[in-house]
């Protein structure tokens, strides 16, 4: 696996290597490999907003752009099942734990629970 720095200044984009045939297993494995992981679509405005939020906080998330992965549709379907709603991205994991979509991330940010989660995961050193 190689890391490719993002020219926009947020996180690292990582090519998704073959982990296994089960998309849910693949999502869980990828989500546990970094302190903050975002599953995204490159054309999604909410995905862009959540990446900017973390960047603005000084966090460098690992971002998986599902529309640029040959098996991204399968992972997107797995994320939909995991969330149980109609919008699969963005999906954020912190410390390997599912935080949720944009609404959950923003609620955590507003109520003050996001920063402690980031500190606990080692993504933020304030």
Q: How would you describe this protein?
A:
- This is Glutaredoxin domain-containing protein.
- Belongs to the glutaredoxin family. CC-type subfamily.
- This protein is an alpha/beta fold and 126 residues long.
- It is 40% helix and 17% strand.
- The longest helix has 12 residues, at 45-56.
- The radius of gyration is 13 Å and the shape is globular.
Give a short summary of the structure:
By secondary structure, this protein is α/β, with parallel strands linked by helices. It has helices at 23-31, 45-56, 72-83, 102-111, 114-121; strands spanning 4-5, 12-13, 36-40, 62-65, 91-94, 97-100.
Structural class: alpha/beta
How large is the radius of gyration? 13 Å
Q: Which percent band covers the strand fraction?
A: 15-25%
Find the count of extended strands (DSSP E, 2+ residues): 6
End-to-end CA span: 30 Å
Kindly state the percentage of residues in helix: 40-55%
Order of helices and strands: EEHEHEHEEHH
What's the story with the biggest beta sheet? Answer: 6 strands, mixed
Oligomer: single chain
Widest sheet, order of strands: 1-2-4-3-5-6
Contiguous uncertain segments of 5+ residues: 1-10
> Counting H and I runs of at least 4 residues, what is the number of helices?
5
Which of globular, elongated, flat, extended, rod-shaped describes the shape?
A: globular
Give the overall pLDDT as a whole number. Answer: 85
Keywords: Cytoplasm, Redox-active center
GO cellular component, one term: cytoplasm
Main location: cytoplasm
Family: Belongs to the glutaredoxin family. CC-type subfamily.
């Amino acid at each position: 696996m190689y890391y490719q720095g993002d020219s926009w200044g947020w996180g690292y984009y990582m090519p998704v290597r073959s982990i296994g045939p089960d998309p849910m297993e693949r999502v869980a494995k990828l989500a546990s490999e970094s302190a903050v992981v975002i599953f995204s679509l490159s054309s999604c405005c909410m995905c862009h907003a959540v990446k900017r939020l973390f960047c603005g906080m000084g966090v460098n998330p690992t971002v998986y752009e599902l529309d640029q992965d040959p098996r991204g549709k399968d992972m997107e379907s797995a994320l939909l099942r995991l969330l149980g709603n109609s919008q699969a991205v963005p999906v954020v994991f912190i410390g390997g734990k599912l935080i949720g979509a944009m609404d959950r991330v923003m609620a955590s940010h507003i109520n003050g629970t996001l920063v402690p989660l980031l500190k606990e995961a080692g993504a933020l050193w304030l």
